[in-house]
Amino acid sequence: MERGRWVPGRTVVVGAGVVGASVAYHLARLGHDEVLVVDSRGRTEMPGSTGLAPGFVGRLSATPELTALAVDSVATYGSLVPDGGGDSPFREVGCLEVATSEGRLERAHRDVEHGRGLGVAARVVGPEEAVALAPALVDPQRACGALYVPGDGAVDPVLLTRLLVDAAERDGVRFRFKTPVVALEHAGDRVTGVRVGADGEVVAAERVVLAAGIWGPVLAAQVGVRLPMTAVRHPYLYTRELPEPADALGDGPIVRYPEHCVYTRRHGRRYGLGSYAHTPLPLTPTSSLTSAEVPFHEADFGTALAEATALVPAFRAAPLGRRLSGVFAMTPDELPLVGPAPGVAGLWCAEASWVTHAGGVGRQLAAMLLQVGELLVDPDRLAPGRFTSWSENRIHEAALAHYQGIYEAH
Question: CATH 3.50.50.60 in the chain, residues?
């Protein structure tokens, strides 16, 4: 195991979702032996964005930073196995980006070259091969062909997080569940710890890492730090369980329809589908919000999901099941916030990251904090203070605009 530079004092990680668990895992792997992770959730609960994630892990992105983080995440996820053996939480199923127009098909050819430059193998397939790869998800009457990225895959986010927690604990990390952080403790311009629980216990720390997802800005604001994140609601729809057998993670590739802002996959004996083809719906998290799932309203997402189910063959006849409205965070440039917070010593961030990039984000943050090893990404590209000169309104509008155009990044 590569050992990092000795860092005196405790590091407290706030949040035990997939990002916080990844940060703890990588800190311990690099030799930091005094790491505590605190989270309001119970050990077996998953109320944050991690528990709602559909588990897509696509590596090819327009930005080399996201690609580097995703590629590293795949390597981390593939190395994890349950105690006593078993399958990795990551399954390489491939990804099809279906073109329903000749223009999009031309873009697919350019994406092959783009992927080659980033070290991600991809190829263009014709409509017949696209249908053969995912017959339940690709309409032969609509498909002109597809970009096929065979090394992409899917994870079970809950299992993945549990394995990261288990591995971190074996390396000496302590986890305190059912321990909500109610405030950041600080003296002047330095964070000195966290205040937790109803009794206001103070946990002293040399460093605090915010990996609290949509709740991160709520805590950061207490010490005068503005995190440039906008929380957005997003719909996902499942079919009911189908009678034919399937394995735990599902058969066949992930399928995206970039022109229609739709993505879909099989989840065992169910199919799942999400859509971005709706007016962006921001949400302002507060400390009283206890879950990243909020009420689903037909008026918000009904039209988008109806159009999406008409596009994907499996959803035209299958009985529909659970509909959910989850919340996740966007930044104005889609890149996560990783590194020291501006203006407050001792406060670090690992925020605005998805399951796709969480493994790489954890490694990047750990390498920066311990000052050891090579970084995956230029730290300035992920710096939490890179939008300091932007107004709140500009940050908000840019993040929402990016939500609407999210598929242009792939």
Answer: 11-54+158-229+333-394
- Residue 249's pLDDT band (boundaries 50, 70, 90)? very low
CA distance 331 to 334: 5
Q: Give the tokens for residue 129.
A: 């091969």
**Residues with Cβ < 8 Å from 362, sequence gap 6 or more?**
19, 21, 22, 23, 24, 25, 26, 76, 350
The pTM for the full model equals: 0.95
* pLDDT for position 262: 97
pLDDT value at 406 more than 90:
no
Six-digit token string for 401: 């605009």
The pLDDT, as a whole number, for residue 1 is: 39
Return the CATH architecture of domain 92-153+230-330.
2-Layer Sandwich (3.30)
pLDDT-derived band at 85, boundaries 50, 70, 90? confident
- Give the mean pLDDT of the chain: 93
pLDDT at position 407: 54
Q: Where in the chain is the domain with CATH 3.30.9.10?
A: 92-153+230-330
Tokens of 274: 């999400």
> Cβ distance 246 to 253 under 8 Å?
no
For residue 215 the two structure tokens come to: 């709740």
- 86 SS3 class: coil
Helix (H) or strand (E) holding 137: none
H or E element: which one contains 315? helix 314-317
CATH architecture of the domain 11-54+158-229+333-394 equals 3-Layer(bba) Sandwich (3.50)
Token pair in block for residue 229: 């994140």
pLDDT of amino acid 166: 96
Measured distance CA(293)–CA(214) in Å, rounded: 11
**Separation CA 53–CA 235 (nearest Å):** 11
How far apart, in whole angstroms, are the C-alpha atoms of residue 24 and residue 65? 21
Q: Residue 284 has what pLDDT?
A: 95
Beta strands in 211-258 (DSSP E): 230-239, 254-257
